[in-house]
Design brief:
This protein has a 6-stranded parallel beta sheet. It starts with a helix and ends with a strand. It is globular, with a radius of gyration of 28 Å. Among the domains are: 153 residues, 3-Layer(aba) Sandwich (Rossmann fold), CATH 3.40.50; 143 residues, no CATH class. It is of the alpha/beta class.
Length: 646
């Protein structure tokens, strides 16, 4: 997280701080470092002052660490800031200091411009200047406070922090993701989100600065850059330039962006595809009444024009949905789920509404008709999806029974959506009750199996015999939807293809794909219009499995309409399931496709003239024209198996 680094930069620039103190910082990896190890390391610094950046995921641990440090070092000055420190008045700070007497100073909002003078006052026993806003000192230090938070409104006020010493402990099982921001601010004012507090228009850093910083980050061997911009695509021209830079410079790092898709066009979609980025669009609900109530807008293009762009470029995007929003109902939330399911995202995240500290919803929950549920009541529900169930607050039309039902949906989506895409696509079309009710039924039956076997949902991928169980659950759903003998037999082929997809998704080779492809990415053609010459080069960078089926893939894809009329193919059907970065697609293989997959090398590029000559000499392909060969090559490129470049 860059917030601590901004504070360090601000402190180092302050003359009084730099004269009297050395400033240092630490990031800790709690998957490989125990709480006691972290405590011992911080204690060994014998620091005059220790600051903590606090958010919901580290709140309890950080404050307990601060308490232990104060006990061992009574004279150490302790300050806390971050998104979870959002007190609005003296009554709130009094309660905090009463419960956490070991904290000396609270800093509200962005800290870059005020942390140095506030710390100067705290360490020297003085008073902060009247211009300082957004802070509260403990009563033993005079209790001075100011609750009028001011936000940074221009890029030149954000300190430059790159490069810095990257000393985070890593492990084989835990990679490193860096959070990065190209700017600040959000165009929305959603009542449930902390971004809505910003009181100015969004701004961006200069493109020169962003490109320089990204180049440094990409050179650090980190696994992922998580762009924290509320809507990265807010300025499409800026986003395109950043993506072009990432495509040129990136070798091994995954990229993640939050997007609105409000201004998505063909060029931007193509750049997202070329960068192999994962995108998140927080739709939350498609109910227009609810959207208006929560101050959020969803682009109406999303469900027609944008849908085509997403599908054509095969973008890796997932969608967030929240149930329990003000004015929503269980029925309308199911309708929202069905709406976004139709966009065919790579994933759907389903969350209960939670109260985030300092948001308008948290401060006026009663006025919005939202009621909280304590952890004891939630624990009694025996929820099994591996998502966070804390600070839950649902609109009055929702009950704990609805919480259990949507936990069923969450579990089914979380563990099966991307693994059993073919089966679930068929079942969703076959079910007249809609996808939401289908996932609810699947999740309920899976939980029954897990409870019967004493297993946890987090282990579903490793339970012996689980594939047989989920197959029986899926077949039961197909039967309930009216499937008969022939249709069920064909469904067995769909299930078999999904199992191969799962094997590929879990294969270690899949993660090597990105490293294999990246050197080619700068010269990849972003459209399907390729002019082949003798010197056009072709290289394979995706590997997979060829599997045998009893039915034509075209018929399997239309099984929900063919039903009992489906017939087995005359000959064995070969289907290819290639490795991909985030998903696995399947497609039928002709004799030509089988030949091309066999001959195109992955360790070096092959010239088109040699490839075409070899195909026309092969006994199975000798009658095939060059146009047919070129069409097949474009098909392999479109499926993400080969690269075609000059």
């Amino acid at each position: 997280m860059p917030g601590i680094l901004y504070c360090v930069a601000a402190l180092c620039k302050d003359p009084w701080i730099s004269e009297h103190y050395e400033v240092c910082f630490h990031f800790f990896n709690m998957t490989s470092e125990s709480e006691n190890e972290i405590f011992d390391q911080v204690l060994s610094e014998q620091a005059a002052c220790i600051g903590f950046s606090i958010y919901c995921w580290n709140n309890g641990f950080s404050l307990e660490l601060a308490r232990r440090l104060r006990r061992e070092q009574p004279r150490t000055f302790i300050l806390c800031g971050g998104p979870d420190i959002t007190m609005k008045n003296e009554a709130e700070t009094s309660i905090f200091f009463e419960n956490k007497p070991f904290v000396d100073l609270l800093v509200f909002g962005e800290a870059e411009t005020k942390i140095a003078p506030l710390l100067h006052a705290g360490l020297s026993g003085g008073k902060p200047a009247p211009m300082n806003k957004g802070y509260a000192f403990h009563p033993r230090l005079g209790g001075l406070a100011d609750f009028s938070v001011e936000y940074i409104d221009t890029a030149d006020k954000v300190p430059e922090i790159y490069p810095f010493e990257l000393a985070v402990k890593r492990s084989a099982s835990c990679g490193l993701a860096m959070v990065y921001e190209t700017g600040r601010g959000c165009p929305y004012r959603c009542i449930y989100c902390q971004f809505s507090h910003r009181n100015h228009a969004p701004f961006r850093m200069s493109l020169e600065r962003v490109c320089k910083e990204i180049t440094w980050l990409l050179g650090q061997g980190i696994d992922c850059i998580h762009f924290a911009d509320a809507a990265f695509d807010l300025d499409p021209a800026f986003a395109k330039n950043v993506l072009r830079h990432c495509i040129r410079e990136n070798q091994t790092t995954s990229l993640f962006f939050y997007c609105s898709f409000n201004k998505l066009d063909d060029e931007l979609a193509g750049l997202f595809a070329a960068s192999q980025a994962q995108l998140c669009v927080g739709i939350q609900t498609t109910n227009t009444t609810v959207l208006k109530k929560i101050n959020r807008g969803v682009n109406p293009r999303l469900f027609h024009e944008t849908r085509d762009l997403l599908a054509r470029h095969k973008l890796n995007f997932y969608i967030d949905l929240i149930f329990g929003l003000p004015l929503d109902t269980p029925e309308s939330f199911r309708a929202s789920f069905n709406d976004v399911h139709g966009l065919a995202p790579s994933f759907i995240m389903v969350f209960p509404l939670t109260l985030i500290k300092g948001t308008p919803l948290e401060q006026q929950a009663h006025e919005y008709g939202v009621r909280s549920y304590d952890e004891t009541a939630v624990r009694v529900c025996n929820l099994m999806c591996d998502i966070e169930y804390r600070n839950i607050a649902l609109y009055e039309r929702f009950t704990l029974s609805d919480l259990e039902a949507f936990d069923d949906v969450s579990l089914a989506v979380f563990y099966f959506y991307n693994r059993f895409r073919l089966c679930l696509d068929y079942l969703s079309k076959r079910h007249d009750r809609g996808p939401a009710m289908l996932y609810e039924s699947i999740g309920r039956n899976v939980k029954a199996f897990l409870r019967k076997t004493g297993q946890k949902a987090t282990n579903t991928n490793f339970i012996h015999g689980f594939e047989d169980e989920i197959k029986s659950i899926f077949i039961a759903e197909a039967r309930a939807a009216g499937a008969k003998k022939n249709e069920l037999a064909a469904f067995e082929d769909i299930f078999k293809l999904d199992i191969f997809r799962i094997l590929i998704l879990n294969a270690p080779q899949r993660e090597k794909l990105f490293r294999m492809e990246s050197p080619l990415s700068a010269s990849r053609v972003l459209t399907d219009m390729v002019e082949f010459t003798d010197d056009t080069r072709i290289q394979r960078f995706a590997h997979g499995k060829n599997v045998k089926c009893n039915y034509r893939l075209e018929d399997l894809n239309n099984l929900n309409t063919l039903g009992e009329s489906i017939v087995e193919a005359n000959d064995t059907v070969y289907v290819c399931a290639p490795f991909r970065r985030w998903d696995v697609q399947v497609f039928s293989l002709s004799t030509l496709y089988l030949f091309l997959l066999d001959i195109i090398p992955s360790d070096r590029p092959m010239r088109y003239k040699h490839l075409a000559h070899a195909a026309q000499r092969d006994s199975g392909c000798s009658a095939i024209s060059k146009d047919e060969i070129q069409t097949a090559l474009l098909g392999l490129k479109h499926s993400g198996i080969i690269a075609i470049f000059e």
